Amino acid sequence: MHITQLNRECLLHLFSFLDKNSRKNLAKTCHKLLEVFQDPLLWSLLNFHSPMELKKDNFLLGPALKYLSICWYSERVKVCNIEDWMKNSFQKDLCNRHENTVSDFLLDVCNRCPNLLSLTLSGCGHVTDDCILQVLKNCPNLKSLKLENCVRITDHTLEAVTLHGGSLRTLHVDFCRNITQAGLERVRQKCPSVMLRAERSANMIPDSKPEKKLMLEKASRKLVQL
């Protein structure tokens, strides 16, 4: 029996065992398999491991998407977690491109995936409070939001959770060094049903502001002179 002789349910089950690239390659072989590839039911879960994956055409965004994970650990992506005042021009340019890629992608998610239940972002140093705010507003069924080492996330995200996270049951903000204990306490008070975890977050040293940067530079020069 040829694969195209299988009914649609069997083909969807077969496709479900393949990664995004394998699905795309198989879909190129015939029109029937392309139709299966384009079935929204196939795309309830998506995992990404590099910025470039967000630009590929080997997946679909749609109302069927329930679980989304973007977890980056490469050396190039780690640059985005460095404080802005420590980056050279090349690193800043790289981070700007990553930020635009992520922002555009999350905007698409907001517009196309209203039934999203779970969002996990790890190592995404370019994700902003505004991105998370838009997700919370446009994905009212979101139950799990897990943020790890997202250095731009601040108490504004925590405030957005209290205002728009009515369905949220799990919130992780581990290693998000720019949130505060006050922000965490606000979430605990206003959203007692949310399971909140903030490992190594509010106790970490936040990003230095420009005036603090200047003070650090002066102190470093004094040490060199000594």
Overview of the molecule:
It comes from Falcunculus frontatus (Eastern shriketit). It is globular and about 65 Å long. The chain has 226 residues and is α/β, with parallel strands linked by helices. Strands 1-2-3-4-5-6 form a six-stranded parallel β-sheet, with helices on one face. The protein folds into two domains: 1-42, Monooxygenase (Up-down Bundle); 44-224, Leucine-rich repeat, LRR (right-handed beta-alpha superhelix). Helices cover 43% and strands 12% of the residues.
What attributes does this structure have?
2 domains; alpha/beta; Monooxygenase; Leucine-rich repeat, LRR (right-handed beta-alpha superhelix)
Class by helix and strand content?
alpha/beta
- Spatial arrangement of strands, main beta sheet: 1-2-3-4-5-6
Helix content: 40-55%
Low-confidence stretches: 208-217
- How many DSSP-defined strands? 6
Quickly count the domains.
2
Mean pLDDT: 85
The arrangement of helices and strands along the chain is HHHEEHHEHEHEHEH
What is the beta-strand fraction? 5-15%
What is the highest CATH level, the class of the largest domain? Alpha Beta
According to CATH, the fold-level topology of the largest domain is Leucine-rich repeat, LRR (right-handed beta-alpha superhelix)
Radius of gyration: 21 Å
What is the level-2 CATH architecture name of the largest domain? Answer: Alpha-Beta Horseshoe
Shape: globular
What is the terminal separation in angstroms? 81 Å
Largest sheet: 6 strands, parallel
Q: Please count the helical segments.
A: 9
